[in-house]
Amino acid sequence: MPIKAILTDIEGTTSAVSFVFDVLFPFAVQHLPDFVRRHAAEPAVAAQLDAVRAESGEAQADVERVVAILLEWIASDRKATPLKALQGMVWEQGYRAGQLKGHVYPDAVDALRQWHAAGYALYVYSSGSIQAQKLIFGCSEAGDLTPLFSGYFDTTSGGKREAASYARIAAAIGRPAGEILFLSDVVEELDAARAAGMATAGLARDGGELAGHLTVASFAAIEPSAC
């Protein structure tokens, strides 16, 4: 079945893991507490704070306690949807102010542009919020890359190591899973995508192998029509 669409992870795949841990997370730690305190009464923020209370089991937590929970979640790299949403809001301010520029590997930029020009539909699936995904590509060091993409998916579609998540994404894209190529640097994610029927290619930028999957060190080595 020929590949018609490409679904890519971000962290470790299109972008350096170090950008997330060395730039984005510290920026959120520095700026999120004051952001929450200033905007806690706004509906979009208040909804996420209520989601934090629900997920933490602390329904009566005041704003300062919610801030503490969020910082604990950042420290443990917890994949919590309300945390990702709030981080996205904080990062948006940083991107818009020019304090942040999204890192995307040059080989990924080149390949994404070539694939888009060749007619492949491009999508993103990351544990970061859709808002954060749009920011990293929209305010990237290579300029605004968002016109290349047809859609974005995050943890609201399900966990990245669960086959059902990829089945949901294929349904949302409107294509059989076999027409979709998924790219990631995590073997468990690749396994889940394959279990849902997708083709896979693994990125191992520092060498090594993602067992059971085509493994490359660069986007330049990926030929979708051969996957």
From TrEMBL:
The lineage of its organism: Bacteria, Pseudomonadati, Pseudomonadota, Gammaproteobacteria, Pseudomonadales. The keyword Metal-binding applies. PANTHER family: ENOLASE-PHOSPHATASE E1. It catalyses: 5-methylsulfanyl-2,3-dioxopentyl phosphate + H2O = 1,2-dihydroxy-5-(methylsulfanyl)pent-1-en-3-one + phosphate. It is an enzyme of class 3 (hydrolase). Binds 1 Mg(2+) ion per subunit. Bifunctional enzyme that catalyzes the enolization of 2,3-diketo-5-methylthiopentyl-1-phosphate (DK-MTP-1-P) into the intermediate 2-hydroxy-3-keto-5-methylthiopentenyl-1-phosphate (HK-MTPenyl-1-P), which is then dephosphorylated to form the acireductone 1,2-dihydroxy-3-keto-5-methylthiopentene (DHK-MTPene). The gene is mtnC. This is Enolase-phosphatase E1. Its EC number is 3.1.3.77.
